[in-house]
Amino acid sequence: LSGPPKTPKPAVAELFLTEHAHVRMLRVLLELFYQPMLREGFFDEQELSNIFPSLEDLVEVHTLFLDSLKKLREESGFIIAEIGDVLLARFEGTEGSWFQKISARFCSRQSFALEQLKAKQRKDTRFNLFIQEAESRPRCRRLQLKDIIPTEMQRLTKYPLLLLSITKCTEVAAERAKVEQAAECCRQILNHVNQEVRDMENLMKLKDYQRRLDLSNLKQSTDPLLSEFKNTDITKRTLVHEGPLTWRVTRDKAVEVQVLLLDDLLVLLQRQEERLVLRCHSRALAPAPDGKQMLSPVIRLRSAMTREVATDHKAFYVIISWENGAQIYELVAQSVSERK
């Protein structure tokens, strides 16, 4: 009897066994942590839906996928010949879009979840004891909650690799094409979720910056950009890069700043204990009416350009020019690679 060549057992077996293990771990998260937290009143339903968004949906989706793998295995006499259709049903089309959506929701809140739970443990002795008791259960397999929460992101990373290993041992071209298409869908889902995670992490950083911003020094400023910035919510902008730089205001004056590169602004913040202060600096300049030029800590990117500093490979100029003149900022990175 001739039929499609059987897919070698190890490749599909690994997908099956690791999916089974993942469903088990998601159920641990749901049944040992999420549901008791709600039942015991540690968090209300809205708070938990922010910490573990779409967890119940994820358990359902992964369980259905595991069930479809089990059914295929039983129908094929435990030696699976064709798995492509089952994979496409899970990762492509409407089902794939739904899986992408709920995975992105859950994974993008991962850092937030860990922060919230850690803060609650510090403040609430009863909650801390609850977590310790839950983590000691055999079902947790010696894993802590902080190790269990990232498992969904880890699973998404694993899918393309698992499916690639199946394609390598699938001889029939049509079947191999289906598995390759499913693997491509997995890569697209992973890329989308990674971007959502980055966007959420940036938003969390910007919220922290917004909370610590001290705008008191801007009240006396007549600079229209600074006046506008007093009422700006930076969480509505996109964080492109952040890090420490030295701002050489003059030859004799240097200021350590935390720089935020946003989608339309460069912001130079000075640390003052827990606060981040926006402070203008002046330098002597003969053509100016009072002999000084004021340098704003907020630079609009659309009117700025950068140039290297020939005498210092860690430094660069930011030049703002307009009809009546220009302002030049000299900024120094901690290393040549950071400057780039």
Short description:
The protein is an alpha+beta fold and 340 residues long. The protein has helices at 9-39, 45-51, 55-75, 84-91, 93-108, 110-123, 125-135, 145-148, 151-168, 173-212, 224-229, 336-339, and strands at 213-214, 239-248, 254-262, 265-272, 275-277, 281-284, 292-295, 298-300, 304-308, 315-322, 325-332.
Tell me the CATH architecture of the largest domain.
Up-down Bundle
Q: What is the CA-based Rg, rounded?
A: 27 Å
Q: How much of the sequence is in beta strands? A: 15-25%
What is the CATH superfamily label of the largest domain?
Dbl homology (DH) domain
Main beta-sheet strand count, sense and barrel state: 9 strands, mixed
Q: What is the share of helical residues? A: 40-55%
Question: Would you tell me which CATH topology of the largest domain applies?
Answer: Dbl Homology Domain, Chain A
Distance between the termini: 64 Å
Mean pLDDT: 90
Distinct helical segment count:
12
**SSE arrangement, N to C:** HHHHHHHHHHEHEEEEEEEEEEH
Uncertain segments are: none
Count the strands?
11
- So what's the CATH class of the largest domain? Mainly Alpha
What is the 3D shape? Answer: elongated
| Overall tally of structural domains | 2
Subcellular location: Cytoplasm; Membrane
Keywords: Coiled coil, Cytoplasm, Guanine-nucleotide releasing factor, Membrane, Phosphoprotein
GO biological process, one term: G protein-coupled receptor signaling pathway
Protein name: ARHG1 factor
